[in-house]
């Protein structure tokens, strides 16, 4: 029995290491590609470690192409979207921050209604949202484009924010509703006896207790909206409203693919989400585990 237990634990550790390697190995490849020249990368594609290390890829991006560095001295063409890196970074921050705020705002209200008001129509809408998520997003792009064009929201950040909020709101409700259901309703009843309205009890009692779930949901919404490519790509065509994923996708040209620049921008784009997860890791684990186990 003891041997079987040790074998099971060993297999579990091996499985965990395989999952971690599956996630991290692409990031390692991106890191290695971002610190070498295009010539060195294509000279030997099977080499694990590069022949030379350079930060010229980051220099080109951060200086908007004004300082090309040694490895770009002979290059006569650089994509124009490199010059829009800071604008795209700001656009991504605005979109991700706005989408996160709106999904938490409307998602918490909807999830609280589902958890406390056991109406048949609320459960029906929740089930309908779950079923709707099985529809591929690409199928909805043409109708979404037509709707946004009719309301004048093409080539604008507000159109992207509205569309992404609509797509992510069901996920926020699914994450928050089980957690709200674990909060004792007696706490709200006591607050209402003391003179609080239902909304006041929700704001002052429920939301502070649901901080882990809100943090976990907020981080997930931020990460998804930060890395969203399809919706901004379909709705926005002007460089001044592009987000980072669209700029990265634009580096794949008809004639040449800027692999090194693409990898460098990917690392820069990952930085905000990695920092956010590192800062809120405790709340993320607590919120997701509590909602999953108790709900």
Task: Compile the SSE list and pairings.
Layout: H1 2-34, H2 38-43, H3 56-62, H4 85-116, H5 120-132, H6 141-150, H7 157-182, H8 185-193, H9 198-209, H10 211-226, H11 230-235, H12 244-250, H13 259-279, H14 281-294
Helix pairs in contact: 1-13, 3-13, 4-7, 4-10, 7-10, 7-14, 8-9, 10-14, 12-13
Key terms:
mainly alpha; disordered C terminus; single chain; MetI-like fold; globular; 295 residues; 14 helices; 2 domains
Could you explain how this protein is built, in words?
The protein is an all-alpha fold and 295 residues long. The chain has two domains: 2-76; 81-293, MetI-like fold (Orthogonal Bundle), CATH 1.10.3720. It contains 14 helices and no strands. The protein has helices at residues 2-34, 38-43, 56-62, 85-116, 120-132, 141-150, 157-182, 185-193, 198-209, 211-226, 230-235, 244-250, 259-279, 281-294. α4 (85-116) packs parallel to α7 (157-182), α8 (185-193) packs across α9 (198-209) and α12 (244-250) runs antiparallel to α13 (259-279). It is globular and about 75 Å long.
Q: In total, how many domains does the architecture comprise?
A: 2
CATH structural fold name of the largest domain: MetI-like fold
Broad structural category: mainly alpha
The total count of helices amounts to 14
């Amino acid at each position: 029995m003891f041997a079987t237990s040790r074998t099971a634990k060993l297999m579990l550790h091996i499985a965990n290491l395989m999952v971690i390697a599956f996630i991290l190995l692409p990031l390692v490849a991106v890191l290695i590609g971002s610190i070498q020249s295009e010539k060195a990368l294509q000279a030997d594609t099977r080499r694990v470690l590069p022949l030379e290390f350079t930060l010229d890829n980051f220099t080109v991006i951060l200086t908007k192409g004004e300082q090309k560095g040694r490895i770009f001295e002979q290059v006569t063409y650089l994509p124009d979207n490199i010059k829009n890196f800071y604008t795209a970074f700001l656009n991504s921050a605005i979109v991700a921050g706005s989408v996160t705020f709106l999904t938490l705002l409307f998602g918490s209200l909807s999830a609280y209604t589902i958890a406390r008001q056991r109406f048949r129509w609320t459960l029906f809408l929740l089930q309908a949202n779950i079923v709707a998520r099985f529809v591929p997003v690409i199928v909805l792009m043409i109708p979404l484009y037509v709707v946004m064009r009719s309301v004048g929201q093409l080539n604008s950040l507000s159109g992207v924010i509205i569309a992404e909020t609509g797509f992510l709101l069901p996920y926020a409700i699914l994450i928050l509703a089980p957690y709200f259901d674990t909060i004792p309703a007696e706490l709200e009843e006591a607050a209402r006896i003391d003179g609080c309205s239902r909304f006041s009890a929700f704001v002052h009692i429920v939301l502070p207790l649901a901080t882990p779930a809100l943090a976990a949901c907020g981080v997930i919404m931020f990460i998804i909206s930060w890395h969203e490519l399809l919706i901004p790509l379909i709705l926005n065509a002007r460089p001044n409203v592009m987000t980072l994923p669209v700029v990265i996708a634009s580096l794949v040209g008809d004639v040449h693919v800027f692999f090194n620049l693409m990898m460098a921008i990917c690392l820069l784009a990952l930085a905000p989400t990695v920092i956010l997860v590192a800062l809120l890791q405790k709340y993320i684990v607590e919120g997701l585990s509590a909602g999953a186990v108790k709900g």
